[in-house]
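In response to the reviewer comment on reproducibility (Comment 2.3), we provide here a single inverse folding case reported in full, input and output, so that an independent group could reproduce the run without further information from us. The structure tokens appear first.
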């Protein structure tokens, strides 16, 4: 519904005229005589149209004009320079039905198919029914649509220019269109060129004061109110508004068209904003690296060089965010927590330090560079972004927000929940008591490689493990496992992409991992789409397996004295569905040992990884197996023979 508040056309058009006149250089000899006369008169409009002229126009066109256009004509019978690309807007004499004079209706029809939506057909027909208001323009059309009418009788206005490569833009009514064109005028004049006067007027002064008030409000935690004020100022092209508003949007998880305009090229903010721009570029492998400079328009050579150094660090995963003061100290502690999977504690460490954070300058609203850090970045969610933005900081005071809920459920049962892509149907993990995560490779490998890989996402770690690999064996099951802390006094190694479970040749790593302590091994494949469903649990202490059971193919094999809470008969009866038992089993394991696995870190975070020794025994005498070796081959001409050792081979 149209805003029915009375609109003062006279003062609005007068203010626009004066702003336009003051934005022009007095000695510009390229200006037309009409424009020079308008500048001297400080008037973009024309004398008002009488009621008789408006009535005659309506009789000529066969329709009564919508209210806001009529009100405009009563003040000015036409308009010069509506925005930047319509040089003359029609009054009572020049408004006319377009009747597809441009042929654009037929052109738009060509792009419609039988599945076209009604809105698309309506858009194509606009060129046949619209009332054309542009008289002189830069290939820009302005049409009022008599079929797009609201309850107040207002017609929507559509603008379209071929050089914009976009569908027609809709404005709710003529008044909205004119206000949008006034904003467009401001955007185009906000940064005067050489020889042009400074663009300063009552509107810019009001908006600049609004931007500064919004900055302080944002630092007090009032980010929603601040965001609205900055958005309004951005629509008028005010220099600081976009850069400040983008900082709010980025912490809310938005990345599209977030460029920190006006501040990204400022060296004062480089360590906070530059990593975000570079990380976004690095996340899109199809982008040519030369396009990174586009995001840094106006930056000096030193800043551009810094950006390309950061780009190398982002791609290699070696970028580390640092900050000064108490917040910087919290960053160090938070990274240590996050890299071992305790993302909830890492977040609380960061957020508790935000009140003591200080901005790098007057256009800095919040700590941001940590979002590009490969270990800290996954801590951010839209809810957490709102919590940070709601926290008073930078020397301002205000009401502290309530804490956001943690992302980790604090148990193991979440593993039984289907993930969005239903990809996590099987997994295996090792829990070791009383050791640090970095000690796990020494317990689960043959000792040849006990160094952890740098933190990576599960996908990146898996891809990296396959890169350059040329040999694959059907009997060698070395697991790529992410490591971290599994609650008080426990560490974990987790594999979310295990090979199929082979109960005949499976060897539990529990005994080897339990020297001087306890170790627990769980392997679940109860939701497998193909093959047998299985679940294995084994517990060892001081290098000796204490008890174990394996459920597979409807049968249970057990050894040792299994605690009552873990007795497989409680979970796998004659009619029991293995998938239904999974959650109960995981809850029982968590309760028996007081352990948990960090869901957010495993699913969305970056953890250290390593490759274990094989989880299967070597093949025995007479057991068949296969080894595939791949070699790079040169292109061969038809009829030629491959050289020895080329191509895949099996043993």
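Designed residues, in position order:
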């Amino acid at each position: 519904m149209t805003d029915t508040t009375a609109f003062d056309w006279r003062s609005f058009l007068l203010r626009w005229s004066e702003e336009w006149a003051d934005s022009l250089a007095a000695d510009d000899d390229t200006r037309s005589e009409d424009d020079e006369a308008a500048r001297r008169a400080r008037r973009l409009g024309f004398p008002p149209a009488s009621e008789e002229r408006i009535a005659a126009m309506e009789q000529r066109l066969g329709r009564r004009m919508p209210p806001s256009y009529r009100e405009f004509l009563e003040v000015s019978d036409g308009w010069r320079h509506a925005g930047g690309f319509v040089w003359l807007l029609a009054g009572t004499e020049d408004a006319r039905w377009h009747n597809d004079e441009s042929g654009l209706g037929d052109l738009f029809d060509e792009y419609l198919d039988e599945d076209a939506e009604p809105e698309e057909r309506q858009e194509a027909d606009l060129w046949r029914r619209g009332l054309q208001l542009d008289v002189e323009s830069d290939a820009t059309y302005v049409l009022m649509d008599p079929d797009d009418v609201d309850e107040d009788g207002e017609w929507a206005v559509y603008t379209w220019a071929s050089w914009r490569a976009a569908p027609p833009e809709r404005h709710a009514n003529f008044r909205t269109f004119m206000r949008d064109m006034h904003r467009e005028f401001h955007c185009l004049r906000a940064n005067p060129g050489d020889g042009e006067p400074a663009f300063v007027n009552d509107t810019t002064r009001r908006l600049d004061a609004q931007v500064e008030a919004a900055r302080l409000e944002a630092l007090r935690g009032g980010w929603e109110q601040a965001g609205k004020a900055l958005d309004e100022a951005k629509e008028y092209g005010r220099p600081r508004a976009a850069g400040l508003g983008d900082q709010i949007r980025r912490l809310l998880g938005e990345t599209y068209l977030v460029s920190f305009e006006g501040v990204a090229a400022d060296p004062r903010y480089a360590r906070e904003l530059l990593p975000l721009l570079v990380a976004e570029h690095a996340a899109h492998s199809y982008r040519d690296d030369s396009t990174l400079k586009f995001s840094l328009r106006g930056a000096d050579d030193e800043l551009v060089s810094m950006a390309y150094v950061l780009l190398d660090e982002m791609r290699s995963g070696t970028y580390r965010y640092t900050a000064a003061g108490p917040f910087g100290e919290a960053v160090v502690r938070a990274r240590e927590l996050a890299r071992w999977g305790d993302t909830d504690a890492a977040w609380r460490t960061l957020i508790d330090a935000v009140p003591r954070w200080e901005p790098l300058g007057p256009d800095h609203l919040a700590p941001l560079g940590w979002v590009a850090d490969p270990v800290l970045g996954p801590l951010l969610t839209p809810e957490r972004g709102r919590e940070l933005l709601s926290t008073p900081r930078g020397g301002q005071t205000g009401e502290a927000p309530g804490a956001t809920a943690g992302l980790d459920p604090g148990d193991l049962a979440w593993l039984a929940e289907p993930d969005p892509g239903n990809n996590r149907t099987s997994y295996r993990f090792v829990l070791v008591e009383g050791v640090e995560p970095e000690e796990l490779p020494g317990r689960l490998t043959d000792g040849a490689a006990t160094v952890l890989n740098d933190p990576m996402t599960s996908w990146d770690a898996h891809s990296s493990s396959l890169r350059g690999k040329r040999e694959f064996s059907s009997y060698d099951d070395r697991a790529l496992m992410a490591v971290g802390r599994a609650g008080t006094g426990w560490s974990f190694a987790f594999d979310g992409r295990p090979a199929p479970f082979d109960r005949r040749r499976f060897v539990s790593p529990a005994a080897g991992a339990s020297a001087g302590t306890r170790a627990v091994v769980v392997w679940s494949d109860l939701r497998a789409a193909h093959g047998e469903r299985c679940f294995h649990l084994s517990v060892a202490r001081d290098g000796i397996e204490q008890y174990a059971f394996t459920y597979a193919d409807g049968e249970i094999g057990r050894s040792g004295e299994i605690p009552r809470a873990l007795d497989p008969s409680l979970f796998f009866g004659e009619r029991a569905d293995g998938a239904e038992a999974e959650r109960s089993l995981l809850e029982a394991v968590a309760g028996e040992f007081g352990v948990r696995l960090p869901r957010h870190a495993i699913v969305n975070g970056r953890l250290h990884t390593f490759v274990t020794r094989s989880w299967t025994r070597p093949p025995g005498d007479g057991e068949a197996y296969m080894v595939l070796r791949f070699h790079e081959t040169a292109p061969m001409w038809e009829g030629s023979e491959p050289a020895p050792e080329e191509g895949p081979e099996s043993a």
